[in-house]
Give the backbone structure.
Amino acid sequence: MDKDKFIKAQREGDTVEILSRVFSRLYTIRNQIIHGGSTCGSYLNRQQVSDGASLLLKVLPIILIIMMKNYSDDCTWGLPFYMPQKED
């Protein structure tokens, strides 16, 4: 059923639905890697991980360009979470 919805979205040119499904699959692969469902040296999901990495290598620069072109002074994405912040 899910495959049929994807094929229908392709046929109708529903870009939002297509990208939503693709990024949902990438998120699943990410979870498998981060949470141990896909381990170092494992042969499972290697093709999906490779395909996902190839796709991200092509898509991320485009996303960054879109973000930079649409930046404005009133645009805020908040502070990054990965670095500790000193409190004043």
Observations:
- The CA atoms of residues 32 and 62 lie 25 Å apart.
